[in-house]
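Progress against Task 2.4 (sequence-to-structure conversion) is shown through the following example record, which the project officer requested during the mid-term review.
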Amino acid sequence: MCSGADVRLAELVGALSLATDIGMGQPFDQACRTCLLGVRLAGDAGASAADAGRAYYLALLRFAGCTADASEAGALFGDELAAYAAYAPLDSGRPAEVVGWLLRHAGAGRGPAGRLRRLAGALAEGSSGARESYRGHCEVARRLAERLGLGPMLGRAIDHAFERWDGAGFPAGLAGETIEPAARIVALARDVEVIARAAGPDAARAAVRARSGRAYEPALAELFLRRADALLGSLEEDASWAALMAAEPGPPRRLPEARMDDACRVMAQFADLKSRFTLGHSEGVSELAEAAAWRAGLPADRVTALRRAGLLHDLGRVGVPAGVWDRPGPLSDGEWECVRLHPYYTERILGRADVLRPYATLAASHHERLDGSGYHRGCGHRELDLPARLLGAADVYRAMTEERPHRPALALDAAAAELEREAGLGRLDGDAVRLVLSAAGRPADRPRRPMPAGLTEREAEVLGLLARGLSNRQVGARLGISPKTVGHHVGHIYAKIGVSTRPGATLFAVEHDLIARTGTVRAGS
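Structure tokens generated for the chain above:
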């Protein structure tokens, strides 16, 4: 678990790809199958070893920015996962298909007036809205790739991931051979995987034939059509995790074990971006659980396991629609069933990779309760060891001190009293509660760190509020400055931190723990 040996980077990225699968409304292994198909296609095309390696990692990380604007997508579609799944096989270069998709999904679950407003807004934004969304997805994915040590290898390929051969793609409208070869390969491979799985090999061939010269490089499309039987046949024969690990071109990339916490932190931030109400949540839980574990006298290897499980515990959150997480009112029974699945998703994601499997059961236990009333397994006190009890208490306390769509953040004393009440009712462990409350202390007593990237205190405040989803007008009202002044601050902030989109700025704010500076922010404030 903590042997000090280097870890296989493909395992970490592969696990993250399982999360992006469910975050895009796809089944587990969609990115894995795309990766295998893309690498085999690259080999048939005579791609260089470097381009084949880029195709391998791009296929797994192409949708790592899928949580970047999940809240906005949830507000537009209701269930953005269903909308994403329906969009996947479409030809985005055909306006009629895109408009038909919007007609079916914009404002889903709302009344006629609500649907009409959202549809009208989406149509009014047109391609500019799509361009900004894709730019944010690419910026977040590139930043996460950099944090995993893949920046120099993948940067341009990620930027080009959603471009099309005919120049009708996003975000830059690049065309032809100006698009990175790996991006051309993966775009075709992903579409083929989605269409072949849903409608069969003949439908995939027909789509590639129809889109050749528009979405796809003609020579690459022709190669696929010649080799379709062999490529798709090999995919159906073996699309296992072992096959994915074996398919990495060249020597396997390694990550020093000392950087495992950083890799887990990347996954935590990816998960927490799912909702503006959870920014920084996983890191906060991890820090609190670790501090409580040291106070409990746990050995170092168990503390390390708990710290990492805390970072990873909400990875399955991305498989639940953002509209559920951001709902201000009571959840329906069906929505509660979706919520209760997220620890299961976490366990399934972590359980696939050897390097993460040791943390799977613990990470997935954060909603279990001593009296058996928790989820997803309904474990009781016999199955929950001290690390699991600490993680559960830390998660509850941290969540209560954060704003949620249905309530403001609780004051620290109120949160502590509620945690103790849960222990008194037999749901949380009393010793774990005392250790967590001791570890929590008082944030006001902790010294503030210097601002990153040369930001001023006011710029940090503005950035924190932007990350929480407020508009320039709302930020100005909260800080007592004009929207125009906020706009000037935003320009300076983006220049200093090296981003060009709100999702990129949000990820920076999470990375540098700037969310807590903003306090409670109510929707519409």
